[in-house]
């Protein structure tokens, strides 16, 4: 018989855990081990609250798992799972994790037993081609992870999950986001990176508690103006979108003309120019110089300007255009100390066109 826990400690917390991690058990062997424990006089199945079955060889879940009626956490990741029974029917599960298995939409029962106790479901790294709508019947679900599947759409009925704090759907095949996402009023993190999304709905602005919005590696060319209303947003990842790539490229590869450079030199160094020295058209040109808004810079610009904003994401700092015009890309670095203390102000200044 295999060891039930990672330690022989008699502590109360360990007595509530069965850990079969990395034991490479086949279904029959696992069932035998569970059955022996169920009949154990020293420890009862009712005591167990956590079972970990990571890295075994299971096509489905053992039937006698349902004898652990007080089970709260079940982790069966990396175990080759291809069929998932209604695990929520005879247990008290609040957290179910089945990452990196072979689950698809055909793997699930038509419906799960409605269970108000379920708080977290993680089905990342499987083979779902459609959003598993059976999960929409868990009214108190707070954390839903469906990343790294092949899901093509978020259903409009997602609005049923009013308690969601985290919705993670990065690494799928999403092309858009339904307006009803805006009804997930308790959402704090929305992860939609590495998809094919080209637009966001204005309803995103209703997510007043949203702190993290990860959109990198999509096809976004613009953001909805309403996004400036997200006052609690402190993490916005936009890299590898046309919105960012295009403007950064323009900034780096569009140097000023000789006319612009000459005009800047004249204005910066206060070189006196009298009528008759140069054509009147050039005098008019010099009169239309714009001061750089960086308070640490005394430079000017005419037509060639740098549009700047900075967001912070989990991989670092990235430049995308702002309604703040600078005379040179070096002013971005020079002005960082000025704008950094008020990063929310920078978010509100994003150019959305």
From TrEMBL:
<keyword id="KW-0677">Repeat</keyword>
<keyword id="KW-0433">Leucine-rich repeat</keyword>
<protein>
    <recommendedName>
        <fullName>Leucine-rich repeat-containing protein 58</fullName>
    </recommendedName>
</protein>
<dbReference type="Pfam" id="PF13855">
    <property type="entry name" value="LRR_8"/>
</dbReference>
<dbReference type="InterPro" id="IPR050216">
    <property type="entry name" value="LRR_domain-containing"/>
</dbReference>
<dbReference type="InterPro" id="IPR001611">
    <property type="entry name" value="Leu-rich_rpt"/>
</dbReference>
<dbReference type="GO" id="GO:0005737">
    <property type="term" value="C:cytoplasm"/>
</dbReference>
<dbReference type="InterPro" id="IPR003591">
    <property type="entry name" value="Leu-rich_rpt_typical-subtyp"/>
</dbReference>
<dbReference type="InterPro" id="IPR032675">
    <property type="entry name" value="LRR_dom_sf"/>
</dbReference>
């Amino acid at each position: 018989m295999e060891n039930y826990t990672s330690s022989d400690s008699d502590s109360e917390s360990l007595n509530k855990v069965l850990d079969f991690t990395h034991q490479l058990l086949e279904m029959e062997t696992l069932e035998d081990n569970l059955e022996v424990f169920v009949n154990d006089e020293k420890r009862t199945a009712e005591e167990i609250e956590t079972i970990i079955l990571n890295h075994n060889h299971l096509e489905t879940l053992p039937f006698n798992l349902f004898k652990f009626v007080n089970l709260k956490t079940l982790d069966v990741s990396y175990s080759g799972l291809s069929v998932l029974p209604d695990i929520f029917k005879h247990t008290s599960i609040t957290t179910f994790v089945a990452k990196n298995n072979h689950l698809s939409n055909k793997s699930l029962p038509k419906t799960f037993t409605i269970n108000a106790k379920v708080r977290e479901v993680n089905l990342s790294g499987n083979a779902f081609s459609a959003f598993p709508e059976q999960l929409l019947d868990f009214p108190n679900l707070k954390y839903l992870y469906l990343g790294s599947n092949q899901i093509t759409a978020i259903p409009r009925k997602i609005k049923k999950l009013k308690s969601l704090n985290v919705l993670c759907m990065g690494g799928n095949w999403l092309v858009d986001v339904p307006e009803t996402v805006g009804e997930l009023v308790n959402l704090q993190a929305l992860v939609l990176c590495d998809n094919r999304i080209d637009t966001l709905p204005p309803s995103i602005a209703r997510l007043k508690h949203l702190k993290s919005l990860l959109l990198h590696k999509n096809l976004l060319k613009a953001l909805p103006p309403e996004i400036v209303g997200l006052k609690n947003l402190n993490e916005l990842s936009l890299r590898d979108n046309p919105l960012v790539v295009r403007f950064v490229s323009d900034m780096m590869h569009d140097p000023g003309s000789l006319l612009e450079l000459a005009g800047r030199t004249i204005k910066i160094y206060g070189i006196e120019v009298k009528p008759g020295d140069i054509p009147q058209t050039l005098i008019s040109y010099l009169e239309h110089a714009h001061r750089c808004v960086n308070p640490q810079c005394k430079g000017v610009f005419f037509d060639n300007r740098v549009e700047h904003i900075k967001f912070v994401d989990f991989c670092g700092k990235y430049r995308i255009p702002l309604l703040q015009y600078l005379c040179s890309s070096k002013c971005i670095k020079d002005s960082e100390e000025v704008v950094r203390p008020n990063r929310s102000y920078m978010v509100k200044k994003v150019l959305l066109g």
